[in-house]
Amino acid sequence: MSHLPNSLEARDVAYQLHSYTDARRHEEAGPLVIERGEGVYVYDTSGKRYIEGMAGLWSVALGFGEKRLAAAAARQMEKLPYYHTFAHKSHAPSVELAEKLVAMAPVPMSKAYFTNSGSEANDTAIKMIWYRSNALGQPERKKIISRVKGYHGVTIASASLTGLPNNHRSFDLPIDKVLHTTCPHYRTMARPGESEADFARRCAQDLEELILKEGPETVAAFFAEPVMGAGGVIVPPQGYWEAIQPVLKKYDILFVADEVICGFGRTGDAFGSTTYGLEPDMMTLSKQLSSSYLPISALLVNEKVYAPIADESHAIGTWGHGFTGSGHPVAAAVALENLKIMEERDVLGHVRQVAPHFQARLRALARHPLAVEARGIGMLGAVEFSHEMLRDKPGALGGRIFAAMQEKGLIARNLYDTVAFCPPLIISEDEIDAMFDMAEAAVAEVAKETGV
Ligand code: PMP
């Protein structure tokens, strides 16, 4: 990094604490400062170009530098830069976006509620669920089940839902009332000789056993991503959702589909719930909703969830919840324009066209001897590498491959030894080839260095 005292790098180290970063290591290594973006590419301050193979954080669906989104933000800024939705107030962008999202939902939904991040959406979902249980005269029905390796955010309740050690360790999490059931990763979790279908059934049995152990009358909801993202891109085994959903129905447990990554085309359908035939009672949405040009998230709730909340708010005199930025007009205007562009350009059609190539190249990358598995669907994928080959600690190999890719001009993401790819949805076949050519060259280089 540049050590000039006034460089951005030096000032970054001096003043900024980074998310998901080893702070002491950062003091030594410094940041990679990104200056601008165009299409699937971003450029650092030295002018070096990178393919953004993760669309930022699984989110910049339309790619970087989309002028229509900037124009939509500017128009709304000039007209009404801010207003809220508290105490019966409203504004056109929030109304239009709520209407649009309810219309797009893959199952009948009643209302949209706006928040600013995926974490806030999931946190709000838990508060809605607790409020609803009280409204229904079932105060004991408060436990929430999510899954080991699920990712639902980092606020106190949503980090509790998240089933990953780094989000709990030293944070005194998870909170009680949040329980985790089996991760549906066939390769690592199946018993010897267990078929994929049997493993899927056992995941549902594990869920049912947990519900029975806790007491079905105490379990309020189940949270899950249709395809797990940050936990390592874990695609559910065949028959998984078909086995899980009847268990939830049997015990009248609400199903919250966390569509923060899957939503808006990532799996090749409008929602991951569409791809897997899910019938959620609530959905949480963010990221590709605005291509992350501005922070915004939303919850969709069905009538079964909405009606008791409405009644309780009437009994109390208010639904005592809301963020200053809930339904922010500029973020909502950008989200609306983003969805409009996706429709006009048939981004979903494009995803369906190029996803088979993306998946084929992903699987080709996983044929390297250092790799153990490729996982993916639509424009979401990951290759898991084997740290055991290096006799090194988990994550070391993934970290090396990630660094070699970045050096070559590809930004991917390593989740321990799994390297994830989640490019902007607008990526072309040639750009997919460029991305995987760099990934293959990086893996070959690391293999050569390590003698594997
Ligand atoms: N849910 C899922 C499935 C996510 O992938 C994420 C973020 N990666 C979140 C929730 C949390 O979103 P945020 O970072 O906006 O709080």
Automatic annotation (TrEMBL):
InterPro entries membership: Aminotrans_3, Aminotrans_3_PPA_site, PyrdxlP-dep_Trfase, PyrdxlP-dep_Trfase_major, PyrdxlP-dep_Trfase_small
A GO molecular-function descriptor: transaminase activity
UniProt entry tagged with the keyword Transferase: yes
SUPFAM superfamilies cross-referenced by the UniProt entry: PLP-dependent transferases
Highest taxon, organism lineage: Bacteria
Keyword field: Aminotransferase, Pyridoxal phosphate, Transferase
Names of the cofactor(s): pyridoxal 5'-phosphate
Membrane-spanning parts: none
Family statement: Belongs to the class-III pyridoxal-phosphate-dependent aminotransferase family.
Record's protein name: Aspartate aminotransferase family protein
Natural source organism: Chelativorans intermedius
